[in-house]
């Protein structure tokens, strides 16, 4: 490709709306342009990167035995109502009507459509296992689109759906997809971790893993063990809770027993609402306080108790309550339930479910709200003054907590979700009536799995991990071009002849070559080359008169070589990338 004809509208200034480095560089480099909030046009450079990512995904998915198809982006709302997700998915589900007032949705995912397809065409176990995938545009009405392609309302996704006879078959398919994902992300040149995760709105009846690219801009927190291979998303991370005092006994039935205690002491605390204010006013530490938060789960009130220095993990709470929706109770709801304003709620005397975090259950006593304005209680004893029937793990892990597997300290990292694999089980097949006749003649529901990859997210994550100083350096396997040839002065016939010779030879060898043949200043060309991010660069400058050019590889080191050697280096570098599937960054 001759750069004089390439549509690559670069920007010299960093766009004000771009927070993430990847977003800034892809706007500056002419990869994408915003059409509306959370919606982007992919320009030729960006589209070339996406096509190379898609090529890797297709190769690995096909090699795994999965088969590609293509489903409509617009889906009948009846299918979503049949599965029960029409209301559960919430405001992120884009809804519309046609001219006949029939309801449709813009698909954020395709579990309903694929299950309806298979139930109508697969009736025998002889057709199983089956794994179908597509690469398609998806839609989610994000409340706050941000970070460019990392959180948008329209995005490119690979989604696959497997159908097996039983759970043993699903285990095999799930492991195959897990390993396929590892190969895909390795080949894309990403540094990533696979972590245990929550199934969220997709749902499911088995294990689920997220594949996370390590990046400071990531919106997810990865919790990993410093001593073993355990890793999980913060929303599902588990940890050991050591007994906090000798007053905690766990009987075989799993309930906590405590010695009888005197009634709590009532303490006047005028305008003391926050944990910080309470610690100062009562001269206690935050871990001596029992924090009570009220939630509304599917319209029902529930209280969650954690230590004063801890944060509630709402995913764990939601899963315990088996709720579709969970939100903090409003000030009005708190007043109706407790008779007091926010900041004074406590567990003593509450008549609805109280979820007690294990750390609180293990406390000898603590300070709580009194369900009365400007009032708290001292010497409140868990298991005596309030029930421990629903004791469990309801808080976020924190750095330094002990790993549940080996006892080593947990560490935190930021991550960008690239892909997610789920064991759905029979969640959708039973709900949508998708079944087959097994070898014994009995009708059984399909045992399903689903497997998603954010294709456009891979592009952003790769850019985020590939920005070094003032240069964007794409991983070789997904770079828009294999090699970038720059003629410093197009008016210099010797330089142009050398550049044209290399361009012809490398193109004939099958390399994707970008030749900067523009009549621009050298500084402009080099700045644009840094934005283009091509891993191999050859500069034809003054040395061309003696048959020499400047070579720069992905390590950034510049060396003077002959034209012939430059061509050989480029061909060898491209062949190495093809053979290894791309180099994995450290």
Automatic annotation (TrEMBL):
Enumerate the InterPro entries for this protein.
aa-tRNA-synt_IIb, aa-tRNA-synth_II, aa-tRNA-synth_II/BPL/LPL, Anticodon-bd, Anticodon-bd_dom_sf, Pro-tRNA-ligase_IIa, Pro-tRNA-synth_IIa_bac-type, Pro-tRNA-Synthase_IIa_type1
Q: Which CDD domains match?
A: ProRS-INS, ProRS_anticodon_short, ProRS_core_prok
Primary location: cytoplasm
The GO molecular function terms of this record are: aminoacyl-tRNA deacylase activity; ATP binding; catalytic activity, acting on a protein; proline-tRNA ligase activity; transferase activity
GO BP term, pick one: prolyl-tRNA aminoacylation
Q: What is its EC number?
A: 6.1.1.15
Which domain of life, per UniProt? Bacteria
Residues forming the Aminoacyl-transfer RNA synthetases class-II family profile domain are 33-475
- Which reaction(s) are listed as its catalytic activity? tRNA(Pro) + L-proline + ATP = L-prolyl-tRNA(Pro) + AMP + diphosphate
Q: Where in the cell is it found?
A: Cytoplasm
Which keywords appear in this protein's UniProt record, sorted alphabetically?
Aminoacyl-tRNA synthetase, ATP-binding, Cytoplasm, Ligase, Nucleotide-binding, Protein biosynthesis
Q: How does it assemble?
A: Homodimer.
Protein name as annotated: Proline--tRNA ligase
Q: Which species does the entry assign this protein to?
A: Paenibacillus lemnae
